[in-house]
Known about the structure:
With 350 residues, the protein is an alpha/beta fold. The chain has helices at 8-15, 20-25, 28-33, 38-45, 50-59, 76-79, 112-127, 140-150, 172-181, 198-209, 223-233, 251-258, 267-273, 295-303, 311-318, 322-334; strands at residues 64-68, 87-92, 101-105, 131-134, 155-158, 183-186, 212-215, 237-240, 262-263, 309-310, 338-341, 345-348.
Amino acid sequence: MRTPGVGCRTFLKILENHNPAQLFAESTSALSALGLKSDIVNAIKNFNWQTIDYDLAWLKQPNNRVITLNDAAYPAQLKEIADPPPLLFVRGNADILSRPQIAIVGSRNPSSSGLETAFNFAKTLSHHGLVITSGLALGIDAASHQGALKAKGYTIAVAGTGLDRVYPARNKDLATEIVNTGAMVSEFPPGTLAKANHFPRRNRIISGLCQGLLVVEAAKQSGSLITARMALEQNREVFAIPGSIHNPLARGCNALIREGAKLVETTQDILEELNQYNQIDEKSLSIPAQSKLDLEQQTLLNLVMFSPTSIDNLVENTGLSVEVISSMLLVLELQGYLEATAGGCYTRIK
Length: 350
């Protein structure tokens, strides 16, 4: 994986007839006969072995491991996909990679309601023995990992970098918590920096490890939808939380449902589909419900969009004074229905 120009498919093709030791012993002409490009052949014949020294030093650290495709510990689910990673670098408990998993993904900039939903779903699904798998990104990914940790369950974070670093750096403490009980996984060797093209590759591992994938919030064009479509291609179950047609963060989920993803309102919907449902308290399953509002509050809330809505607009639509509107907006904000945004506007979040 440290040879420039050699990706998963080329690596896997080579492994059909050679082990790595045999490959490096081959002549230039024999390597060319395998269909390898001249720059790849040159990289193999002039390999920089110092990079391997760095990998070996990383492996000597506690809880670090490399799993090859032919290793008995390699997760069977992941081996089924079209382009499984030939190597998996693991920090933490590698045994959980073969346990039943549900992936949870979504927006990096979710609403507070989306964060709460991801956290609660992850927590409840963990109680039912499912490992929660995600990508350690800000937003829905992080909330999902945190929900599993809160339940004292297992969670797996699939990285788009080498495991000697954490991306984003803001999730460094969360990564440490995950490694203590669960696992960090990457196909990228230590020292690999974050690059845009790494994350689609990471996403196929997230979906490949799991039995099903849940999308909590996603815009119409988002990486979460790419992951969901990878899951469909890999014959995994895809679940999506529906949302308001006015909420940009719901459009991706609603589109997935139109395309055949299973609409999810409670964790029971997922557990039944995965044949892991047991009787549990329905209160722990549902998406958090709104508390009761009086008619005037509800009327005002209905006028606040899932995009920035100005106080002037609300005054015009209700006929109420700025003072009264401002007072009601403060109450609704404190109750978690909306949040203040730039320019003196408000955005509805549930």
